[in-house]
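fyi for ur records
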Amino acid sequence: MAALSGSVWRIWEAYENAPFFGGDATLTYKLMKGGNQVLAPQIIRFRIGGRNPDDARCRAYTESRPELCF
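which gave:
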């Protein structure tokens, strides 16, 4: 289910039973025509809303992935 431009996507309804994380996201893109760049790189910042996991599950996952900790 995708949101229409300018509308609100009630993501929690589409994924009510799915465990997932939310957070800030950045999409960077540039339009090309052949080998020529048509526009300067464009940046869109947005937020993905999702259900937070319970604390114990989050801690277990984080501690199992030491390469993600810095």
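Helices lie at 11-14, 55-64. thats all i got for now
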